[in-house]
Model the fold of this input.
Amino acid sequence: MKIKVDRGRCTGIGICESVAPDYFEVGDDGGLVLLREHIDDPQRAEVEDAVRACPALALSIVED
Amino acid sequence: MPVFTHPHPFTTDKDISSAEFWSRSFVERDETFGWLRKNAPVSWHPPLETPELLPEVHGEPGFWAVVRAEDVAFVSRNHELFSSDSKKHGRSVMFRPTDPSLMPAPTFLTMDPPEHTRYRRIMSAGFTPKAVNRLRGLIEQRAARIVDRVVGAGEIDFVTEVSAKLPMMTVADLVGVPEELVETFAEAGDRFVGADDPEINGGTDRTQFAMQQIRVLREIGVDLVRHRRTRPTDDIATALAQAEFDGKPLSDDDIQSAMLLLSVAGNDTTKQTTSHSVVQLWKHPNQKAWLTEDFDGRIAASIEEFIRHASPVVEFARTATQDLELGGQEILAGDKVVVFYASANRDEEVFDQPYRFDLRRTPVPHYGFGGGGVHFCLGNGIAKAQLRALFSNILTKLPDMRVGEPEMLQSEFIHGIRHLPVVIPD
Done:
């Protein structure tokens, strides 16, 4: 499973970063950087929380 | 070019358009919104009554009121269907009709993607979680100083002495305003936002008064951005200095509108949430005790309830881009659609006993930062950092404060407290 970012929707709010900082980071230019694309099983719930928390609905989890 | 807008037959006999309706209390108003949530989740109404602006001048036939949480989220998240582009539609994103000949300069608040994305991106660099963390120390220092000043102050207005102080200073810090100009900048921002209030404009002409404040904000902003072109650091002024559109740097007018947007968006929101939350915490001493017992462990979730309960921003408006059905109603392209966040925050379908101020709610999927989508409040992190810093000081340093009756602001846009008399004994 991996994370997909819809760049057209992402506005760099950074709620994902506060929920799952190992995966998401908003860079100094305001753009979202995926620190890791593939989701490790132990962190699955955390990443799902981050995806659900995105107010811009820019994140999703897709099959490899 | 303004899109043609259609009149519709009124779908209910409920009034949410008159000045009289908006002079009632939040709780009284929500009796009507509660009825609408239950019986007519999307309903057509005459335009907001505006004594200063004739309907012939603004030309709005009416608006659709969207009052349920689910629908507020739908409208907010589908910018392709519900547009914010004020230039294109000749209409602002406010419920209050505006004079089409006096439309304010566009900001990313009044744009759709992709234009919105380009503009917002410049500012969003100043609001990333890391940027908020960089400012946290300064916010905490300022909050401590603001509260220290009123310890033992006796009878004061909590709004002017505490709630109103931190938000504009934080805006100044975000922008990167040098310390010696922070007070001037903050004062101009506060006066600009309150320019309609005779208590603030001192009975002078409100337009002249507002223009004076704009000049101050513009001058400080433009000077600072110019300075940052050669001495960059990590503030918003630097981001504005480095921004380019089509190979050209931002104009002085662009910088001015950035300063105005920050002053408006960063001001009343946090200020009102502070005042409302003090009222609620003092009304519910058991909740206050519960929070104080484990402040660090409980404040983050409590802040979400502060914001839900306060609902400082009542509404925003959109324009439908195509004919569509929502809540059983046929909305036509060009119609004005108003999303009432304050109503969504009292939606019984989402919040159990929505009137209760209950810090133990978890999670609190509130609409205080909007209904999601691309216009979700950019300042949400900085607002939470301020509320945390303020309440950590208020709860520890003002335990014996007595809180009086709030004097409410009459507004269809901001759920506000004008004054809050308190007594802080020695």
